[in-house]
Amino acid sequence: MYAAVVKYIILTLCAQTNAWSIHDYNAERANLLEQEFGLQVGGNIKLSDKENSANNVLMRYKRQEVDESFQNPKYFNFSRHYFTYKNDIEKSKVYHIIRKMPKGAALHVHSSLMLSAERLLALTYEDHLYACFADDDLKLHFSANVPQRPCHTKWQLLSVLRNETEDIVSFDENIKKHFTLYSQNEKDLKFDINYVWERFNKVCRTIKDLIAYRPVREKFFYEALKEFYNDKIMYIELRSGLPILYELDGTLHDLTHMPRIYHRVAKRFKEDHPDFIGIKLIVTIHRAKDINKIRKSIEIARRIKEELPDMFAGFDLVGQEDLGKPLVDFYPALTEAKDDINFYFHGGETNWFGSSTDENLADAILLGSKRIGHGYALIKHPSLLAAVKAKDIALEVNVISNVVLSLVSDVRNHPLASYLAFGMPVVLSSDDPGAWGADPLSHDFYISFVGIASKRANLRMLKQLVINSIKYSALNASEKLEAFKKLFKEWDDFIEDLSTNFR
Ligand SMILES: *[C@@H]1O[C@H](CO)[C@@H](O)[C@H](O)[C@H]1NC(C)=O
Ligand SMILES: *[C@@H]1O[C@H](CO)[C@@H](O)[C@H](O)[C@H]1NC(C)=O
Ligand SMILES: *[C@@H]1O[C@H](CO)[C@@H](O)[C@H](O)[C@H]1NC(C)=O
Ligand SMILES: [Zn+2]
């Protein structure tokens, strides 16, 4: 298809050797741009009359925002760190429209980092929570008695500490800081990838401490589903390791307990919210582990697949790609599994062209990954890009994550702009929205739509992205049919609302 288009363009350009009338020139120019516009994500979507009037409302606001920044680039917030403008997003009309838009599915989220710091803080009000404050580290543990885990200072009941403090608000603010990377502090806005990942890993550890206690994990997960649902997300594919959960008396659960909890809580959530479709699970393990651990993890993934076939989606490796092992190191274990376990690999979450992390993209393609997490570096690989397009492997793009975790500082330079322009199979997701205080999806959609996609990209692109989220999910054919039915009903309501109430 590209070849045909390119040939057409060359032929038409070469034909114009004689002087044109300005009229012909303008027609040709419009044609050329229209051709290209048709290649974009959403280029094939036809809008109904209702959708067209909704689109007019949306685009009026989008053009206003983009024009303002174009004329005053010093006020263009998206060229700065997300933390500097996060709280201003509320002021945008486009954002409020996107908030209301049904978004289909979130396909790239890590389960323990789904929930906002506010809701995590609320969970620290649960009984029997011990805290160990040491320097700028916070360890947490639920226990009937003083925990046996090592602590440089002293384990104390958080409820007692909170009761003793003069100023509960700042006490709680201080705890909340351990649950989020969000900061207005100048030194936390710098783009040193290892520094940021270190902070990030610390936040992960504290949160995992809090939610390793089985009853709190259940509450946590229900709350997380609620935050996603309220952001108009109907279905989620979670990436989750298999942590060992405990009870108050110290009883430990086995590795397959957690998926059962996901299954049970999601079922309860669905009963309470009938228009929610559900979740599926991508089992993950840290890429720093050795191949035997990877084998063992795949073995457990198989057991989960057997026990909970409706919920199991596949397998992935996580952790900072640049510092972890490349996929090719695990080739023997992964190739053994690739016929019965679907892969959803992270790949190319790097700025290092030609590095082992960069080449993970080749392994993801060769090992048959169903989608690729991030695929940030793919733009530099024309053959791999063509293979991804030909095999219709979706790219799970997480823009805010890439800003916060230091891959890009001005989002206009994000490769998503090219992926959208080339009509690549793209889905938007949010990776770890709780860890940086983003909406489950709305912030990522808003920034992508206004800050990255073409100024001309409109409701057609948004609709295609929403459709893609179901199309490229791990739902089976009949589940997809059901999901699309619900999605299009919600979509029609959204269009009705936008075209009539949002002038
Ligand atoms: C951009 O950020 C500034 C503060 O730095 C804020 O006053 C302004 O409203 C923001 N603009 C938008 C469109 O969010
Ligand atoms: C809080 O402290 C007061 C005394 O300062 C005490 O009477 C009360 O029982 C404490 N409450 C809890 C929950 O520890
Ligand atoms: C699709 O998944 C549903 C469960 O959600 C299951 O009942 C059905 O059998 C599956 N269909 C196929 C073709 O696997
Ligand atoms: Zn991720």
From TrEMBL:
GO terms (BP aspect): adenosine catabolic process; inosine biosynthetic process
Kindly give the PANTHER family that the UniProt entry links to this protein: ADENOSINE DEAMINASE (PTHR11409), ADENOSINE DEAMINASE 2 (PTHR11409:SF39)
Catalytic activities? adenosine + H2O + H(+) = inosine + NH4(+)
Q: Provide the Adenosine/AMP deaminase N-terminal domain boundaries.
A: 16-98
Q: Which GO terms describe its molecular function?
A: adenosine deaminase activity; metal ion binding
What Gene Ontology cellular-component terms does the record carry? extracellular space
What residues form the membrane-spanning segments? none
Q: Family assignment?
A: Belongs to the metallo-dependent hydrolases superfamily. Adenosine and AMP deaminases family. ADGF subfamily.
EC number annotated for this UniProt entry: 3.5.4.4
Gene assigned in the entry: LOC113396897
- Spell out the Pfam families in the cross-references: A_deaminase, A_deaminase_N
Question: According to the UniProt entry, where is the signal peptide?
Answer: 1-19
Annotated compartments: Secreted
Q: What class of enzyme is it?
A: hydrolase
Name residues in a coiled coil: none
UniProt keywords (A-Z) are:
Hydrolase, Metal-binding, Secreted, Signal
What range(s) does the Adenosine deaminase domain occupy? 196-486
Tell me what organism the protein belongs to: Vanessa tameamea
What is the protein's name according to its record? adenosine deaminase
List, alphabetically, the InterPro entries matched.
A_deaminase_dom, A_deaminase_N, ADGF, Ado/ade_deaminase, Metal_Hydrolase
